Amino acid sequence: MRRRVFAGRREPTVSETAGESPGDRADLRAQRDRLLEKFTIMQTDLGGAFYEMAIRDHVRMDVLTGKAAELQRVDAELLAVERMLEMFE
Amino acid sequence: MTEETRYQLCEECGAPLDPKQRYCVHCAARRGNGANPASQYFAAMSKRARRPAAQPKSKAGSGSRAAAVAFFALLPVAVAIGVVVGRSGSDGTDDALLQALRRQDAAVAATGAATTGLPAASTAKSKAAKAGKDKVGGKVIAETKNGTVHQITGFEPSKQKVEEDTKIVESNVKQSGASYIEAQQNLPDVIVVGGDPDEAPALPAGSQP
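Structure tokens for the assembled complex are given below, as produced in the milestone run.
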């Protein structure tokens, strides 16, 4: 099975951005916005997929759990970026 | 009609999909046919979020463009008005203005001579300096802007000069305030004080700095 890429590009990790200068803070905000958009789309997709499976009586928990794991990774990354921004703002 | 034509296939896993199916039930992949209301909602929201930022820019751009058009449209009119005003003001009025300025200069010069007496006096003194001697009687060394400088060495004042200068000194001692300052400003450069130097009162003893 091919993995679907939602945002089309890899997000830089939190450790790659220092956030000390105003430019870094702007980068952090941009990264936060990208992660927020990605998380929203992935969560909507997870809910939509479960709804589709449920109405057709074809729920596949392994697929949904995998999707939930991807969503959790993005959620953790978003939380880290938001904490970094709170520290510097 | 085959099954493949009746059912579209999932782009991710190739599983058959119902035309109204929004997600694949095998791999949970979203279909890209635009029938998903959530996708339509997000697209509309993102459009709405970008629209307010774009609208004021377009309004400001049209306003500045209108101002630029108005400026370039009124520029030739303003230039034409300036040319007309300039031509109308140059016939005869310039001569009158020049004459008025000359009259004003002459009046200022006459007033200066009357109040200070310096220009007239300096003119007379310069004429006397050319002759070598003047009213004071001493030899003229130099003509400065503050007056004529006479040589004191070998100067022998006339009796009339001694009497006049003595009167000046006596009257100057009695003056005070503004009148004293005015009297000091009109003093001649050489003042002869009569009398015997031995009979003069002792100089006041001041403290050395």
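Confidence is low (pLDDT under 50) at residues 111-131 of chain B. Residues 130-194 of chain B form one domain. Further analysis is deferred to the final report.
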